[in-house]
Amino acid sequence: MTESAGAESIGDDTAIVLVHSSDLHVDDPSMHRGYNGLVGLRAVLATARTLGADAVLLAGDTFDNHRVSTPVLRQATDLIAAAQLRVVLLPGNHDPALADCLFRRAGLIGVPNVDVLGITHLEAIVLDEHDLEIRGRAHRSFDNMPPFGPLRPRTTRWQVVIAHGHYVPPHEWSAHAHRAWRISDQDLAQTKADYVALGHWDRPTPVGDGSVPAYYSGSPDLAGTVNVIRMTAAHGVTVSREALIWD
Fold first, then answer.
1. CB under 8 Å to 5, separation ≥6 — which residues?
2. For residue 27, what pLDDT band results from cuts at 50, 70 and 90?
3. Tens of pLDDT along 193-225?
4. What would the DSSP string read from start to end of 144-197?
5. Quick one: fold of 8-243?
6. By C-alpha distance, which of 186, 222, 230, 190 is closest to 205?
7. Would you list the domain boundaries of the chain?
């Protein structure tokens, strides 16, 4: 694919292109050997630009912990601001939307191409130019919480939901009662979304009962890919994985 500034064309149909990633865990490079989250962030953004993405969805744990240094936070902000892509972030269990949250410390709030669910928008962002609503419930503490908010009536042609939590299939629900942030088949189905972008797992995989397309992207370092969602009136929603472009 060649780089473009906006939606790509599939035949005579114009596609909305979204790139979904999660669990970048940006941290001070000295804390890790080899991979660090800044490298992953740079790769996700470079890949999204090459794919002509209309928006990048980061489904939680963009930052690893609240001890990330200010210089590293600012480097992340500089990368995102320079990408000239719409970037929608959901605070996860590692980077919840606290009063002194990492997104504020990083200087991301107020960057024109950045939206942070739970901070810049309560639970929904509408991209009028694409007739698309992106919604999600931010983690606001380190405690357990339902990953999905109240059901909302659809007001746009397209709707994407972002959530950060642990999917559990029906036959394992009781056995996983000890886990926080559980996600059920019913939770996913009730969204009635065109796509559910999930974070919290390092491996990429579809989940749920198939009634809605719900996918974990996996982390950049372990998956080595991003999920690419293309939405068109003629072809509906298609989901693929694309290899990351590393420097």
1. 52
2. very high
3. 999 999 999 999 999 999 999 999 999 999 999
4. ---SS-------SSEEEEEEESEE--GGGTTTTTT-SSEE-HHHHHHH--SEEE
5. Purple Acid Phosphatase; chain A, domain 2 (3.60.21)
6. 222
7. 8-243
pLDDT at 78 over 50: yes
Which tokens sit at 32?
A: 């890790």
Report how far residue 105's alpha carbon sits from residue 51's, in angstroms, rounded to the nearest whole number.
30
Query: Alpha-carbon distance 179 to 165, whole Å?
Result: 10
Helix/strand/coil for 62: coil
Q: What pLDDT was estimated at residue 150?
A: 87
Global pTM reads: 0.93
According to DSSP, residue 139 is labeled P
Q: How far apart are CA 106 and CA 226, in angstroms?
A: 24
